[in-house]
Amino acid sequence: MNDLPGAVGRLLERERELDLLTAPVPDSAVTVMTVDGTAGVGKTTLVVHPAHRLRAVYPDGCLYVDLRPQPRTVRPPVPAARAAAAAALPRRHRRRDPGRPRRTHCGRRAATSSLRLLMVLDDTAGSRQAEPLLPAGPGSLVLIAGRRLVELDADRRLTLEPPETGSAVSVLRHLIGERRADGEPEATRELARLCDGLPLARCIAGARLQTRPAWSPAYLVERLSGDEGRLGALWAGDRSVEAAFRLSYEQLPERLRRGFRVLGMVPTAEVDRLTSAAMLGCPPRDAEEILENRVDTSLLQQPV
After folding, report:
1. How many C-beta atoms lie closer than 10 Å to residue 230's C-beta?
2. CA-CA distance, 269 to 46, in Å (whole number)?
């Protein structure tokens, strides 16, 4: 059974990550690989593409479970995720009466103990969501994508950074047409820069130009210029950069939400713990904890 979604999107400059995710795994245990990174950086695309490449290696089934929380919800109910994963199992391995969650958990482990499965867990909030869903069959592979995965035991970890501007320009040329992009090369490059390398922002910008043939790249650059209106302009249908970041924000406890809001007022792109302590009105040690927590949730980058 193949429950994987379609492999869409272009993976430029992700060869190293693909090699790591598709490398052979031991037959004696379940292998867990995690992919984390900021909202919109392409985590889902990166775990789905290698899953399609590897599906022939896992004849007992390729399962996909989307754990994305609904707006203003910290975590979706784990029992519901268990039920979704159980429903994706081959029919002969399902239990007729799974009963209470504890028995469902045990029954799931028993049902998968003899299977070699490939499982993709997308938008995972942490170990409390992932662990009850893990298969038990030796040689199985689990690819987990999420914003905060530091507490998960993993055999391999990848943290995605936004691609370079050059690859973003190549994708924009593909999306809006080479003739249109090359007619305004400076505007196309600036558009890629304004998307900050985020594949989600880049795809939305491309979709806006695809559906607005009267718009030029320079016109969209003008709409995206200025921090105040940029997030509001990066939406297409039900896809929105603002909504993607809001999910990360809403998973934070209130103390860290306040820290995020306060530090968002820093006039520079960089911040240290002493500046943070002064703005938050707390000791430097507490400010550093807040900064590290934001790194763990992929809401802050630590380049040095």
Report:
1. 17
2. 27
Collapsed DSSP state (helix, strand, coil) of residue 156: strand
Is-above-0.90 flag for pTM? Answer: no
| Dihedral angle computed from the Cα positions of residues 166, 169, 171 and 173, in that order, rounded to the nearest 10 degrees | -140
CA gap 141, 86 in Å, rounded: 17
Q: What is the pLDDT of residues 145-202, one digit of tens each?
A: 987 788 888 999 998 888 776 778 888 999 999 999 999 999 999 999 998 878 899 9
Asked if residues 258 and 294 have their Cβ atoms less than 8 Å apart, the reply is no
**Whether 68 contacts 84, CB under 8 Å:** no
Handedness of CA 121, 127, 129, 132 (dihedral sign): positive
Output the CA–CA distances (angstroms, integers) from residue 266 to 15, 62, 230, 259, 263, in the order listed.
36, 45, 18, 11, 5
- Beta-carbon neighbour count of residue 148 at 10 Å? 19
pLDDT for position 233: 82
Q: What does the DSSP assignment read for 166-180?
A: HHHHHHHHHHH-HHH
The mean predicted confidence, pLDDT, of the chain is 84
Looking at the chain, which runs of residues are DSSP E strands? 31-37, 62-66, 118-124, 141-146, 156-160, 235-236, 239-240
Contact 116, 58 (CB under 8 A): yes
Main-chain dihedrals φ then ψ at residue 253, nearest 5 degrees: -65, 160
- The DSSP 8-state label assigned to residue 55 in this structure reads G
Position 74 confidence tier, pLDDT thresholds 50, 70, 90 = very low
| Contacts within 8 Å (CB) and 24+ apart, 91-96 | none
Largest CA distance in the chain: 63
| Rounded Cα distance, 287 and 293, in Å | 10
pLDDT digits over 80-118, tens only? 555 555 555 555 555 444 445 555 556 667 778 889 999
Q: Which two tokens stand for residue 143?
A: 């690819």
